[in-house]
Write a structure and sequence with these properties.
InterPro entries: TPR-like_helical_dom_sf (IPR011990). By secondary structure, this protein is mostly helical. It has helices at 2-9, 13-27, 33-38, 44-64, 68-81, 86-98. The N and C termini lie far apart (34 Å). Residues 31-38 have low confidence and may be disordered.
């Protein structure tokens, strides 16, 4: 998990997204407590919060680069891990409205 935070502090959101996505995919669909603790994540909610932050920041970077298709692909990948998550659905709406 330290690697993810390191990428975030250096604004390397693509790498943070990929690293966190791999970590979370190992834990889905239930995101069990024991493996998360072993990975340095205290609870499911903190992992989810970090992931949502990284998705948002990575989408911002892609939007600045006018890579709009990739913005929605990132959000879609987030929805695969957290289906029907209200913040990710809202993120989709916000991005669509900006277009």
């Amino acid at each position: 998990l330290k690697v993810v935070y390191d990428f975030v502090t250096r604004a390397k959101f693509k790498k943070a997204f990929e690293a966190l996505q791999k970590l979370l995919q190992l834990k889905t669909p239930e995101l069990t407590e024991a493996p998360l603790a072993a990975a340095g994540i205290e609870d499911k909610d903190s992992a989810e919060e970090l992931f949502l932050f990284v998705v948002s920041k990575y989408a911002d970077q892609l939007e600045e680069q006018e890579k709009f298709q990739e913005v929605f692909e990132v959000i879609e990948q987030g929805l695969e891990l957290f289906p029907e998550h209200p913040e990710l659905l809202n993120e989709t709406g916000v991005r669509l409205q900006r277009l």
